[in-house]
Amino acid sequence: MFGKKKAKSIEINKLSSLIADNVEIVGDVIFSGGLRVDGRIEGNVINKGDELGLLVLSERGCIEGSVRTHDAVINGTIVGDLSVTHFLELQPKARVTGNISYSQLQMDCGASVEGKLEKLEDTADSGTKVLKFGNTPAPAAASASGKD
To answer: pTM for the full model?
Structure first.
């Protein structure tokens, strides 16, 4: 009646693993499928291989280390770089201190990022590639000194 809701771009995955709020892990975590983090991880969090994994970091969750995954919904704290090859959602309580690379981004009011945002560009052969900023040649008029 009022129109269709826009479907989210996150690919549906079953959240098969949970790190509860009373759990602290020191070391790298490699996951497949879906992972929900309510606890604390001191180490890198990596989506296994080329799988289409989903990381959900709750408001209570904290990761100190680099994160690499296909899709991510972040509402907690990450201290380290975040690389999401498909869809990244930063919810209102998200706090990221580090550089972020993504293909699609949804950032809610209240989310905080201290670092660079880099948009990944889809390519037919490799899936994604990082766009380089500032590599466009200057126009001839802008580079000329204007003096003869």
So the answer is: 0.76
